[in-house]
Specification:
The chain is mostly beta strands. Helices cover 4% and strands 45% of the residues. The chain has one domain. Strands 1, 2, 12, 13, 14 and 15 form a six-stranded antiparallel beta sheet that branches. It has a five-stranded antiparallel beta sheet with strand order 3-7-6-5-4, with no helix packed on it. It has a four-stranded antiparallel beta sheet with strand order 8-9-10-11, with no helix packed on it. The longest helix is centred in the N-terminal third of the chain and has 9 residues.
């Protein structure tokens, strides 16, 4: 009898069954339309959130549980700088930009994201960057909205270096409880990046120059729609006009 019981116990498969989970004005005549659903942008595959490296002078925490509107901005940035902008993407997040220096073409420019934690410390700096004077950044512009489609706001940031082509660096900073950090970074001239709502994503608009085009007058415009698939930005449509 004991042998029969042992045989019955040993015949069962202890391994659980495998499961699977799923991962404005009139425009020129359109001359080409391309759909490219698999083209990937030269972007970071995931937000860069660890470790949080803060520029010199930016405090890591603010230890009073003040509401956004009551935060002392001068205590959230390096001492002695000029605050150039504030944005409130949601009730728990604050973005502050600053500049320092007398020469408008050689100023330090910076940005910091502050998030309310609901615990101690109440406010934490979760992401920041600094452009040194030699970078030639004239200013930092910010727009906010959900471009990744995850239900959390994002920040579209432009570090403007000027020039006739309005050159600079465009970035998307994901703002979410899981971590804040860039998912997209691109240096551009004669181009711009906008937030797209239909479909949700980014709209990249680039000038197209022919061999004899003067810099003032490109032959056409290329408009690309980029969408976030959870790990990367992909070009989902592209249209050229006038070229």
């Amino acid at each position: 009898m004991l042998l029969l019981v042992l045989a019955a116990c040993s015949s069962g498969d202890p391994t659980p069954p495998a499961t699977s989970g799923g991962p404005t004005s009139a425009t020129p005549t359109v001359t080409a339309t391309v759909t490219a659903s698999v083209t990937e942008s030269p972007a970071s595959p995931t937000p860069t959130v660890e470790p949080v490296i803060l520029p010199p002078g930016v405090p890591a925490t603010y230890r009073r549980d003040d509401d956004q509107a009551n935060l002392p901005l001068e205590r959230l940035v390096p001492p002695g700088v000029e605050i150039t902008g504030t944005w409130f993407p949601d009730r728990e997040t604050l973005i502050v930009t600053w500049g320092a220096g007398d020469d408008p073409f050689r100023r330090e420019q910076g940005l910091v994201v502050w998030r309310r934690t609901g615990s101690d410390p109440p406010w934490v700096a979760t992401y920041a960057f600094l452009d040194p004077p030699k970078a030639g950044v004239l200013g930092v512009q910010v727009d906010t909205g959900d471009v990744t489609g995850d239900g959390h706001p994002d920040a579209l940031v432009f570090e403007n270096t000027g020039g006739s082509g309005v050159c600079g660096t465009w970035s998307v900073i994901a703002l979410s409880p899981e971590g804040d950090g860039p998912t997209y970074t691109k240096d551009l001239c004669d181009a711009s990046v906008e937030m797209s709502t239909r479909p949700v994503g980014l709209r990249l608009v680039e000038s197209i120059f022919g061999p004899t085009d003067p810099h003032c007058c490109p032959s056409g415009v290329r408009t690309s729609i980029l969408q976030w698939n959870g790990s990367r930005w992909r070009v989902t449509s592209r249209e050229e006009t006038g070229a």
